[in-house]
Amino acid sequence: MKNLSTHKQSTSKGVVPGKHYSYHELVEYLDGCWLNDRKDSSLSCMKKLDKAFGNVSKKIDTILVTGTNGKSLTTYFTTRLLQQEGLSVGSLYAPHLLTYNERFVYNNETISNKQFADIGNEVVHTVETLGLKPHALDILTTMAFLYFSRQRVDVALLELTDLHGTDPALISKPKISAITRITNFETEENSEQTIKKVLSVVSPNTHVVSADQSKLNLNVMEKITAEKKGIWAMPIRKLAPLAYPFEQLHGRSAALAERVAQLYVNTFLANDTVIIANSLLIKQKGQRGRPTLEAKRKSELHPQRTIEEFWKEVTSLLPGRFQLLDKEKPTVLLDTASNVDAMENLLLGIRLLHYRCPIKGLVLILANSNERLQMAEFVKQLRYFFKKMSGSVIVCSVSKQAGSHGRASWDQEKVTNDLKSMKIKARSAKSFQEAFELASKTVDDRNGLIVVAGSSALVADYWRSKGMKRL
Questions:
Q1: Which of these CATH numbers, 1.10.3720.10, 3.40.50.410, 3.40.1080.10, 3.90.190.20, describes 323-465?
Q2: Domain locations in the chain?
Q3: N or C: which end of the chain has fewer CB within 10 A?
Q4: Facing residues of 209 across strands?
């Protein structure tokens, strides 16, 4: 990796004149920063960067999205709803599959390479001028704040990458904190300890809403929210009416998104903001008495779209988040699920697809990191699943990917033997390419299904095998 030299001179904006590093050089620099320390709960590095850019994080309305699973989908659905209301929205996603650009989205359009390079140069030069040693997330989050500020977004949605209170996005003062679900899938902490860290997203007057279904978890969240002088909102109980089979799989994330969007447009928009007449989220004040003939004619000529109709038309456009590629032969299902909670949802999705159209030939290509998946519980899930459906598993290793925090790939031979010991048809493969070739020979081209899941790196391997360099 080329060394980015330190510049001594700085400007009032915190930007250092000097060489303009290429897009690919910046990617190399970011790749190298993932190994830097990120355990500083005081967020000192991020705060210094933010200050150098005029405390840009405080100049944008933010909504933080955290939890165990469903964060990206909740962010995506909320973005779509707020756009429907006529707002401009910035979204910071995590992780990325092929390029860092996927993390920076403005009105559902990813950042261009040029914009990425320009903003990245400003941040990297400032890092070196200040003599900082940031984690990659510090740089990426600073870039996001700058990008969204310059796009003049009405609101930015920031997906947090962990549950431990060290995410650099926490320096913002969120209007709303959305909590999808909390499970202790990779920690020895009890639920209350985990929740306390998750609730670090709460500032005074922050509205807190959760889609978690545990009454115990919700009670703890409500208590901590009150202690932090936040505003607790009623938790999500219903599923949004998405098209089949997405209602059962993603309906709770969509319902959480609907609540978040409603809270924002009804509570935080300025009084002089013009709301579009056909708002899905703001109930128009009813007219007393019977509607006039003119009102009836307008209603018939311009029927108002309902939130139910909106949900029926919306499907996920986030690659890898339960993405069904039904134009492929055989059909391919991609899912970045990497813990037992998400895997349970994936297996449910496969069964729902089978109920709609019987699957003739099923192969699951799985890869994970050693400490990410509770194997004993996952094997039980698979055993139960294969009692209901016929199919097999191919276990392969995880490719190295920036942002994986140095996690080691699981031992595919050991995992394969564990599955076989539970009477599950399984075999191992040395690479994704080998696994996919084996799976393609096993299932029916017309009615078969190949599932690629267990790791965002594995889903990225699929796209690379198709010659994709950018999603």
A1: 3.90.190.20
A2: 23-253, 323-465
A3: N
A4: 178
Least Cα distance to 335 among 444, 239, 423, 250 occurs for: 250
Which are the contacts of 47, defined by CB distance < 8 A and separation ≥ 6? 171
Closest-CA residue to 225 (of 255, 243, 203, 249) = 203
Given this model, what pLDDT does residue 369 score? 75
* pLDDT given for residue 3 in this prediction: 41
Q: Could you report the per-residue pLDDT of 300-320, keeping only the tens digit for each?
A: 666 677 888 899 888 777 888
449-453 and 362-366: which strand pairing?
parallel
Here the tokens at position 257 are 């998104």
Sheet architecture: strand order including 323-325: 323-325, 331-335, 449-453, 362-366, 392-395, 426-428
pLDDT given at position 283: 61
CB distance 129 to 13 below 8 Å: no
The full length of the chain comes to 471
CATH topology of domain 23-253: UDP-N-acetylmuramoyl-L-alanine:D-glutamate ligase (3.40.1190)
d(CA 393, CA 372): 18
Judge whether 175 and 202 are in contact, CB under 8 Å: no
Orientation of helix 44-52 relative to helix 136-150, angle to 10°: 30
Query: What pLDDT was estimated at residue 2?
Result: 38
Per CATH, 23-253 and 323-465 having the same topology is answered: no
135-160 pLDDT per residue, tens: 999 999 999 999 999 999 999 999 99
Q: How far is CA 319 from CA 64, 156, 211, 336, in A?
A: 21, 21, 23, 9
Task: Kindly report the average pLDDT of the chain as a whole number.
Answer: 87
Helix, strand, or coil here: 367? coil
List, in order, residues 6 or more apart from 402 with CB less than 8 Å away. Answer: 30, 31, 34, 136
CB 60 within 8 A of CB 158: no
Alpha carbons 429 and 51: distance in angstroms, whole number: 49
